[in-house]
Amino acid sequence: MTNDRTALTRSELADLLTEAAQNVGGIPAAEYPTAAARSYLHPVLGPLAAGPRVITELNDRFEGFLATEPRPAGSAGLFALASYASALGWLTESFAELTSSVDEICTRVGIPTEPCAPIAATSGGTERDDEFDFAFNARELEAVRSAAEAAGLAPDDYVEVLSQSLLAAARITDACMEISSGLLDDADLLSEVSDRPRLDNDPGSLPALVRSLLARMETTE
C-alpha cells in the first residue's frame, strides 16, 4: 500500500478486509511435503509453514494502512482498523499456540517413555481419547504400524502424537475460519451504501471480530 493524500474509500477498506480474509482462510488448506519419518506432523506442517508468511503480509499491510496520509479517520476507517487489528492479533496468538503444540509433540517424541501396551484392532467399539475417537480395522491397524515403524515409534506412541497433531490442526483451522468469517462480515458491512458503521455505544456498531473477541473474554472470566 502506498502513501497518498487521498483517504481510502469504503470500497477500498472493504477490499482490504476481504483480501485479508482470503489469505487467512487459505492457511488450513496449505500443504507441506512431509517425510515418512515425520508423518505424524503432517496435519500441522502446512498451516505451520503458511501461517508466518500470512502474518507477515498482514502486518506489512497493516503498517501501510497506518502510514497512509491522511491517516484512517471517520467511522469507516476506524471500523476497518479495529477489524484488521483484531484479526492480526487473534491470528498471531493462535499461531503461538500452534507452535507451542508442535513443540510439545516434538518433545514428546524425543523423550524416552515406558513401553505401552500394543494397540489392537477393534471390531465394533471405539477407543475414546479426550478429543478424538479411534477405531481401527485390520487394514488401518497395519497402516498405523507401518507409519509408526517409519517414524521409529511404538504404535501407541504414534497414535498419541498423531492425535495431538490432529487436535492442533483442528484448533488452528477453527481460528482461521472464525477470523476469515469475521473479516468478511466486516467487509460486507463496509460495502453497504448506508451511513453505517457507526462508532457509538451500540455493541452492534463494533466490528464482528471485536465482538467475537469480547465474547471470548467474557466466557473465560
What does this structure look like?
The radius of gyration is 22 Å and the shape is elongated. It has helices at 10-25, 42-67, 74-110, 138-151, 155-191, 208-220, and strands at residues 127-128, 133-134. Helices cover 65% and strands 2% of the residues. By secondary structure, it is mostly helical. The chain starts with 9 loop residues before the first helix and ends with a helix. It has a two-stranded antiparallel ribbon. The chain is built from six helices and two strands, in the order αααββααα.
Based on the model shown, name its key terms.
two-stranded antiparallel sheet; 2 strands; mainly alpha; disordered N terminus
Residue runs with pLDDT of under 50 for 5 or more positions = 1-5, 111-132
End-to-end Cα distance = 39 Å
Helix content: 55-70%
- Given helix and strand content, the structural type is mainly alpha
Number of strands: 2
Number of helices: 6
What do the pLDDT scores average to? Answer: 80
**Shape descriptor:** elongated
Major sheet strand order: 1-2
Order of helices and strands: HHHEEHHH
Strand content: under 5%
Rg is 22 Å
For the sheet with most strands, the description reads: 2 strands, antiparallel
Give the topology:
Blueprint lengths: L9 H16 L16 H26 L6 H37 L16 E2 L4 E2 L3 H14 L3 H37 L16 H13 L1
Antiparallel strand pairs: 1-2
Q: What's this entry about, in short?
A:
With 221 residues, the protein is an all-alpha fold. 65% of the residues lie in helices and 2% in strands.
